[in-house]
Amino acid sequence: MTRFKIHPTVILAAFFPFLGILTWGQTGLLWLCALLHEAAHIAAYRICGTKMQTVEILPFGICAIPENSLKITPSNEIFCAAAGPAVNLLLTALLLACPFSAENETARYLLYCNGALFFINILPILPLDGGRILYYALAKKHDAALCEKICYRCAVVLLLLLLYPVCAALFGENNPSLAMIWGYLMGITLLRRGSI
User: Fold this and answer.
1) What CA–CA distance (Å, rounded) separates 108 from 127?
2) How far apart are CA 168 and CA 166, in angstroms?
3) Cβ neighbours around 107 below 10 Å, total
4) Where exactly are the structural domains of the chain?
5) For the segment 133-168, what is each residue's pLDDT rounded down to a tens digit?
6) Contact in structure between 36 and 91 (CB atoms under 8 Å)
7) pLDDT for 8-35, tens place per residue?
8) 32, 105, 154, 168: most buried, per Cβ within 10 A?
9) What's the rounded Cα separation, in Å, for the pair 113 and 95?
């Protein structure tokens, strides 16, 4: 049976509207996009015959952990990891194709959310989906230790390259959310050394 948990740091998301980062409506729409992203992962795992052990709500989204993940083949893991970003990319494309999306503020924000979720999650940094895709693509031919080492080094280099754009966005546009995501990814990369 799937367990549902709420991470204690979810309280941070409640401060977004108070800090002027997002409005209440924007916070809700962002969570809706994250929910659709995670629902795609869950559906992909179900297609591969795996149920979810835990679904945890986090301040920046939702994380689903499958049962018996060691029994899933690398190809299936790649399929399941790609499902979430694929849904965000599809929704982005649909919103771009709609003639009213340029004039509608809600549609523009949904376009931004889905585009951001796609681009952030496809980065080859563990535990993001792009990192999992890279790891399992390598796992087809290499052992776990080498896969983790390659993923760790790739993540550190990429995060260092992203430092300047994040700082420019933070100080140029007063957008602390990018800095918080970058800090989280750098912290988890250094603390976990890219482990799955």
Assistant:
1) 28
2) 5
3) 15
4) 1-122, 124-196
5) 999 999 989 988 898 888 888 888 888 887 767 666
6) yes
7) 766 666 666 666 667 778 778 887 888 8
8) 154
9) 11
Query: Mutual orientation of helices 129-139 and 144-173 as an angle, nearest 10°?
Result: 160
Tokens of 142: 């290499």
- Burial label for 134, CB within 10 Å (0-12, 13-18, 19+), is buried
Amino acid letter for position 171: F
- pTM exceeding 0.70: yes
* Contacts with 164 (C-beta within 8 Å, 6 or more apart), sequence order: none
Residue 121 and residue 145: Cα distance in Å, rounded?
Answer: 23
Q: How many helices and strands (H and E) does the chain possess?
A: 7, 3
Beta bridge partners of 65: 54
Look at residue 175 and give its three-state secondary structure: coil
Task: Name the phi and psi angles at 65, rounded to 5.
Answer: -115, 120
Name the token pair of 80.
């399941």
Handedness of CA 149, 184, 39, 71 (dihedral sign): positive
Cα separation values, 66 from 2, 22, 63, 95, 164, Å: 9, 31, 10, 31, 35
